[in-house]
Amino acid sequence: MPSPFARIVAGPLSRALSSRNARIFFGASLSAWTGLWMHRIGVAWLAWELTRSAAWVGLIAFADLAPAVLVSPIAGAIADRVDRVRLTMLSQGTIAAEALVVAALAASGNISIGLLFALEMVSGTAACFSQPARQTLIPALVAREDLPAAVAANSLLFNVSRFIGPGLAGPVIAAWGVAPAILCNAIGHGFATLSMPWLRMDPEQRRGHPATTSLLAETVEGFRYVARHPGLGPVIAFSALSSILLRGVQEILPPYVERLFGRGAESLAMLTASFAVGALISGLAVASRGRLPGTTRIAVFAILAQALATAGFVATGHFGFALLCGAAIGAAASAHGISVQVLAQTAASPSMRGRIMSLWALVTRACPALGALALGLAGEALGLRLPTLIAVALALVVFAWGLSRIGPIARSLETAPERRPG
After folding, report:
1. Which one of 131, 217, 354, 417 is separated from 34 by 20 to 30 angstroms, measured CA to CA?
2. Residues 6+ apart with CB under 8 A from 224
3. How would DSSP label each residue in 326-391?
4. Does residue 287 contact residue 153 with C-beta atoms inside 8 Å?
């Protein structure tokens, strides 16, 4: 009898990865994201070494993620009207170049915290264009019935990279410092950039719609579309609020590792890898479903699980238990993220997909950045434990609101596309 893992691989995910285009696309994604996670670990540790300040670590995370607040909605509108392959190549090439500069400056000892902040702003801005451009290509890679599995595979590979990247970064930083770890991001994103021309796609699927009005008007139209949608508006708002309150912990782990547990870089890598192991396991489980019904319930209850696991993580002083809580946090965050992505991708109108994915990028990048900044600043004054527990309490209030809206959201987003009204 096949194992559960074999059944997962032989099911929806195998169909999603069956085409040549999908294998190239997702292979490049794994390369880029592994480099990204090595970069994040390296940069966070570099900021901590330069300043020994939780506030500065939070500011560096904010610099990488916060540009999404202003840039992502515009980037989504651009992705809906230009060649998405070329936009992906340009943005990923910029990320690779930024990583190369940071690695060189760190290796030569010429990096300062202010310069690091500015460079991470550049990388974060480029990522705002890369994310919606890449994600709008996914429907062109697979048959329509395999889109939920392809979206799940995309998120799953992101979480696989969260396991591989920190697992590589920890020993590399311990042995040779942060520069080689950051350099790996330049290599990973460089490979992903060069692989894009290998995709064989219908030109009509590479490009968005012809410009019908101004870029600003199309950007505003994306916000209005989501606000009027009975399912997309509430589920994205729910995800945004919970991300602000809970995801910041994962963005500023170095201060937690040293101040709560008295440990160093290798333990940081262990903890980040525990997040990824949990994310991988739950990601495989969610991806193996291959269907929409019940997805909204998973998205909502995952936030309850993440809040409780976060409370356990900061309440304990035992590193072994913290690793278990980290795995639970990663599992819950992965289940939530995959579920919301599947709902958004399948519900969005094709002409709006870039803008919808840019709003999702806003949630996944800007909201954790805001949470990280708040936790970092509060941590300097109050310590890390109390502000985190306050955020958990507020997240439970958000969960209660989401629980009250499960029915209407599910009826709007889980209806098969061909039967969905409007």
Report:
1. 354
2. none
3. HHHHHHHHHHHHHHHHHHHHHHS-GGGHHHHHHHHHIIIIIHHHHHHHHHHHHHHHH-SHHHHHHH
4. yes
As its CATH architecture, domain 12-413 has Up-down Bundle (1.20)
Q: How far is CA 329 from CA 39, 106, 312, 332, 402, in A?
A: 21, 31, 10, 5, 19
Reading the block at residue 151, the tokens are 């979206």
Buried b (16+ CB within 10 A) or exposed e, 35-48: bbbbbbbbbbbbbb
Burial class (CB in 10 A: 0-12, 13-18, 19+), 118: exposed
> What is the radius of gyration, based on Cα positions, of the chain?
20
In whole angstroms, give the CA distance from residue 394 to residue 396. Answer: 5
How does pLDDT run across 376-399, given as a tens digit for each residue?
888 888 888 899 999 999 999 999
pLDDT digits (tens, 9 = 90+) for 249-293: 888 888 888 888 888 777 887 887 788 788 878 878 887 776 778
CA–CA distances in Å: residue 267 to residues 52, 271, 291, 325, 384: 17, 6, 38, 14, 18
**Total length of the chain:** 422
Residues 6+ apart with CB under 8 A from 212: 218
